[in-house]
Specification:
210 residues; five-stranded antiparallel beta sheet
Length: 210
């Protein structure tokens, strides 16, 4: 487990990606020695930035191994997939073919461009990202099954437009299911309330609070 943890930590990004017009902050902390969370980014040759947050069902070494497989699969397919819909379908077929029974992964995959507030994203059964703007907080619901459940699942690309000063939070259930010393869960309402309080802060400062 110690070796597995070292490998998993080595696969995490060592810094925050830089993209003109954007402030981006990434953070991951496994609850156990190893876990099933995936956090990654990949810079495309055309200037686009690819960001991925995934969560493999289950805990421990098995989930960690499948998270590493998901990361490798996404990196291999990202640059030559015709669309995020295509990327989701191809990744799903590989996981259904090579995966284990009752093992699946939720995923949010995003593409952004320099100095452009347009966000293209794929949500495969993951926690809905939260968008904080001057109009309040809105969500984009998941519109597809998690990766690895059904080989012929259909995936749908979504999009949203961020204005200057908007904040987009993509997170896993490790945040909403965190408990305090009284065993009270933070919950989705707690996440939304906290996002409203940090909206307007620099991204790194907001991430540190969250």
């Amino acid at each position: 487990l110690e070796v597995g943890r070292a490998v998993q930590l080595a696969l995490l990004p060592t810094d925050n990606p830089e993209l003109p017009g954007w402030e981006i902050w990434l953070y991951s902390r496994p609850a156990n020695d190893v876990g099933g969370d995936l956090l990654d980014y990949l810079a495309g040759s055309d200037g686009r930035l690819h960001l991925a947050l995934g969560d493999v069902a289950g805990k421990g070494l098995g989930a960690a191994l499948l998270a590493a497989k998901l990361q490798a699969t996404l990196r291999a397919l990202a640059t030559d997939s015709a669309s995020l819909t295509d990327l989701g379908a191809r990744t799903n077929r590989i996981f259904c073919r090579d995966g284990l029974p009752n093992r699946f992964a939720t995923l949010v995959y995003l593409e952004i461009r320099p100095n452009d507030g347009s966000v293209r994203l794929l949500n495969a059964g993951h926690m809905p990202p939260l968008h904080a703007s001057a109009k309040g907080i809105s969500t984009l619901p998941p519109v597809a099954l998690p990766i690895g459940i059904k080989a012929d699942a259909v995936y749908q690309e979504q999009s949203l437009e961020l204005a200057e000063g908007d904040l987009l939070l993509v997170y896993s259930d490790g945040l909403s299911e965190a408990v305090n010393e009284h065993e009270q869960m933070f919950g989705d309402d707690g996440v939304r309330e906290l996002l409203g309080r940090v909206h307007g802060m620099p991204t790194a400062q907001a991430g540190g609070v969250i």
